[in-house]
Automatic annotation (TrEMBL):
Domain HTH luxR-type: 772-837
A molecular function (GO) term: DNA binding
Record PROSITE patterns: HTH_LUXR_2 (PS50043)
Alphabetic keyword roster: DNA-binding, Transcription, Transcription regulation
Coiled coil residues, start to end: none
Protein name: ATP/maltotriose-dependent transcriptional regulator MalT
Organism: Georgenia soli
GO BP annotation list: regulation of DNA-templated transcription
InterPro entries: P-loop_NTPase, Sig_transdc_resp-reg_C-effctor, TPR-like_helical_dom_sf, Tscrpt_reg_LuxR_C, WH-like_DNA-bd_sf
Keyword Iron-sulfur: no
Keyword match GTP-binding: no
PANTHER family (UniProt xref): DNA-BINDING TRANSCRIPTIONAL ACTIVATOR DEVR_DOSR (PTHR44688)
Length: 839
């Protein structure tokens, strides 16, 4: 067991060993005595060797003694350094003491803390009169960091230092082994740990039988705390104390009585199973006989291959406790319980739940599929909930509904309301009603059951009842589930349903707060966070806060499940459309076209579908959405065309008809909004705006009616749409005063355009740049704004609608741009603009 401890110590200023080295190598000549005490492999020999080199470099005759023979004639040496003094016979100590008393020169003695013979104790006491013993203990983080950094010749991640310290216990000889292996192979500490353990394990086979038995028992899980004392220590207290002292002195056991982790791995790696298994079973029996828990040892026992019913039950119980809050840990524990002999069928539903909540949908689905193949599968309701949740996250809510339908409301018990959610989401009102009735009859009073019932009843109210009642029930369901803190499998989170209903009824503040509360309370666990972030982003988009929306997109970034990926794409498309990002819109639409091929329509996907309809209309590819729209309208028809869910899609239909210049397609949606207005104030606002659009498109611009419709849209969270209506009407207003009034309305409703002006006076753009001031391009801020829209292929009318100016004003801006650039043709203008603006 060798060490590079001295080199490390020379960089660790302030330690006793470093001070001793500095004194001997740089101090004035003096008669010095010192003792070094440390466990095996702590660096005593290496430090003595460094000291011997230093003495010899200074011209001092030096004896480095490693045995009794080296101590025979010391009179001619100015420095005597004795290694492994604990192994010397008793007469040698008297000889060394006489030398110290009768001769000048330095004396340094190194020894282990055990065994300490009487003669060694007298020698140490005599030398300690000049200086206390220098204790070489385990290395600390600064020493390991310095040594590893120098050995590997580069910066070292903190995680590497932490792992090395954990594996080695700071024992220098083991630190050196690991770092040497890392330097030789170029691998990380985690990668070399197994090979180093195997090497160390073979070296440990030469230990005395009693010491090896102690270490192996401790490696298995016996400890010195009194709960499970290693069998070898129960034979004779005196022999047991000697074995523990020997293990610590050898650098194999820490002072708290635990085996160094790397030594533990080494022993288990090289010891045959037929010797390990009896010890493991004895450990379990000892702990159970003493009434102690197996929790502290169960995982390690299972990982090393022990199959034992008590170990399996302990792991299963621990996993059950972690399931609601720590699904990843629970998943690992269930797998270990199965390896230890737990019934894989009995735990299948819980294993599937932990996998699903940890984000491993494929594994969760596979477990459920296998379980449901059994006759009378156990924990059926949980298994169905997990399977339905997996299908829903994959964007296939109809399959989730099929699963609940197959199980039947009587077997679902408290999960029947979740079945109702899936049924309503796919348009099966009759089956949803049966599930709701069964839930009311069979449900339990737990908070989770209450949350499920409120969620289903709230969704029912949104389809067949009162929207206001629906919203508060869904918000209460969300609050209840968040307060419970459990991550449970559901077809849809109550926070998501509450946010969707809030968005569909113009309650943006409620939608935002319910999503934020759910995020703070970790509703649904880590796997559900992206969906909640995306809904927050959707609210930010509607409130004309694009940077907040993009921040939410970044929060939700990663490998999303299909239904969340659809929302992300629609949100990106919506942002691009509202910020006039033509390139972003095209990119987003390309991804949307691909995603739509894999995504069936359900009630909870109407929000992104409506936004994609508008993107398709803007790009004149709305026909690609016709099959999905047909499915959506069929779904809504089966549900009785509920205003909460139908009105927003009708509004998107109105907008799409306007974008494509097809007023004949607008009329059915306008009628749908009028019908929905009878039961929904939100739909009434949309219906009013729809009528205003129809009149504007026909050339009948009633300024008061347009203003009323536009401000109404803003009041229900559609300020961007309201500003667009006012700007569109302004472009068709016959009177300049009407045009100015409507443009002012548009500016008031659309914050990002609030400072945009129709002329080039001394006003500013939204970024605060004076629009009348030109820069190195020779164009004003407003002219550059118009120029970018020209490069995007916009017509005069489209430019006017985008920045709330009239088409004629847009034409004037473009003419002025041509004059300033000194070009005559449109092609020349486009070429110059691309060069100037870097487009």
């Amino acid at each position: 067991m060798t060490s590079t401890r001295p080199a490390v110590l020379r960089e660790a200023r302030g330690t006793a060993a470093a001070a001793l080295y500095e004194e001997i190598t740089t101090g004035p000549p003096a008669r010095r005595a010192a003792t070094l005490v440390g466990v095996g492999g702590s660096g005593k020999s290496a430090l003595l060797a460094d000291l011997a080199d230093a003495y010899r470099s200074a011209g001092v005759e030096t004896r480095l003694a490693r045995s009794e023979l080296d101590l025979k004639d010391l009179s001619t040496f100015g420095a005597v350094l004795i290694d492994d003094a604990h192994s010397l016979p008793e007469p040698a100590f008297e000889h060394v003491l006489r030398h110290w008393d009768q001769h000048d020169g330095d004396l340094v003695v190194a020894y282990r803390p055990w065994p300490v013979a009487p003669g060694l104790r007298r020698l140490v006491s005599a030398l300690a009169e000049q200086r206390p013993p220098v204790v070489l203990g385990p290395l600390g983080p600064p020493e390991v960091l310095a040594y590893v950094g120098r050995s590997l010749r580069g910066p070292v991640p903190p995680a590497e230092v932490d792992r090395i310290l954990h594996e080695t216990g700071g024992m220098p000889w083991l630190v050196n082994r690991m770092v040497s292996a890392m330097r030789t192979t170029g691998l990380t500490s985690a990668d070399v740990a197994a090979s180093v353990a195997l090497q160390v394990g073979h070296e440990l086979e030469h230990l005395d039988a009693g010491l090896r038995d102690l270490l192996l028992a401790s490696a298995v899980g016996f400890d010195l705390s009194g709960e499970a004392v290693p069998p070898v220590l129960t034979r004779s207290p005196a022999e047991g104390d000697a074995l523990v002292s020997e293990a610590v002195a050898a650098g194999l056991m820490l002072h708290d009585g635990t085996v160094v982790p790397l030594v533990r791995s080494a022993l288990l790696a090289v010891t045959p199973a037929y010797r390990v298994r009896p010890l493991q079973r004895a450990l379990v029996d000892t702990l159970l006989a003493g009434g102690h828990s197996l929790n502290d040892v169960a995982r390690e026992l299972a990982r090393t291959g022990l199959r034992h019913p008590h170990v399996a039950r302990a792991l299963e119980s621990t996993a059950d406790g972690a399931l609601a809050q720590e699904p990843q840990l629970a998943s690992e524990l269930y797998e270990e319980a199965t390896a230890a002999g737990a019934d894989a069928v009995a735990t299948a539903a819980r294993r599937a739940q932990s996998a699903a909540q940890a984000g491993d949908l494929d594994r969760a689905g596979a477990i459920v599929e296998e379980l449901l193949g059994h006759d009378n599968p156990p924990d059926l309701a949980r298994a169905v909930d997990v399977g339905a949740s997996v299908w829903a996250q994959r964007g296939m809510l109809a399959r989730a509904a099929d699963l609940y339908r197959w199980a039947g409301e009587e077997r679902l018990g408290a999960s029947a309301p979740l079945g109702a959610v899936a049924m309503l989401g796919t348009g099966d009102v009759e089956e949803a009603e049966r599930m709701l009735a069964a839930g009311a009859r069979l449900g339990s009073p737990t908070s989770l059951a209450v949350a499920s019932a409120l969620m289903a009843q709230g969704l029912w109210e949104s389809v067949r009842g009162q929207p206001t009642r629906s919203l508060w029930m869904l918000v209460r369901a969300s609050d209840t589930l968040t307060a419970n803190g459990a991550a449970v499998p559901v077809p849809e989170l109550p926070a998501v349903l509450a946010a969707l209903v809030a968005l569909n009824t113009g309650e943006l503040g409620v939608a935002e707060s319910v999503a934020e509360d759910a995020l703070r309370g970790h509703q649904g666990g880590p796997a559900s966070a992206p969906r909640l972030h995306l809904l927050r982003g959707w609210v930010a988009m509607l409130r004309d806060r694009p940077e907040e929306a993009r921040a939410a997109l970044r929060e939700a970034d990663g490998d999303l499940v299909p239904r969340d990926e659809m929302i992300r794409i629609a949100l990106e498309v919506g942002l691009a459309r509202r910020t006039d990002d033509a390139a972003g819109l095209v990119r987003g639409w390309a991804r949307a076209r691909e995603a739509l091929l894999h995504f069936p329509v359900d009630l909870f996907s109407l929000l992104p579908l409506g936004e994609l309809l508008l993107a398709g209309a803007r790009l004149h590819e709305e026909q690609r959405l016709e099959p999905h729209l047909a499915d959506a309208w069929q779904l809504l028809l089966r549900l009785g065309e509920p205003a909460v869910w139908a009105a927003p899609l009708h509004w998107c239909g109105v907008q799409a008809a306007i974008l494509t210049g097809q007023p004949d397609r607008l009329a059915p949606h306008a009628r749908g909004l009028v019908t929905a207005a009878a039961t929904s104030s939100y739909a009434a606002v949309l219906a009013t705006a729809g009528r205003a659009w129809v009149r504007v498109l026909s050339g009948d611009v009633d300024v008061t009616a347009v203003e009323r419709a536009a401000t109404g849209l803003a009041a229900v969270g559609l300020a961007w749409d309201g500003a667009r209506l006012a700007g569109h009407a302004a472009a068709r207003a016959p009177e300049r005063s009407d045009m100015t009034r409507l443009l002012a309305c548009a500016r008031d409703l659309h914050p990002s355009a609030a400072d945009a002006r129709q002329d080039d006076g001394a006003r500013t753009t939204p970024t605060g740049i004076p629009v009348g001031v030109v820069d190195e391009t020779g164009l004003s801020a407003r002219e550059k704004e118009v120029a970018r829209l020209v490069l995007a292929g916009k017509t005069y009318r489209e430019i006017g609608e985008t920045i709330f100016i009239s088409p004629r004003t847009a034409e004037h801006h473009i003419a002025r741009i041509r004059r300033r650039l000194g070009v005559d043709t449109r092609a020349e203008m486009l070429t110059r603009l691309r060069a100037l603006l870097g487009e």
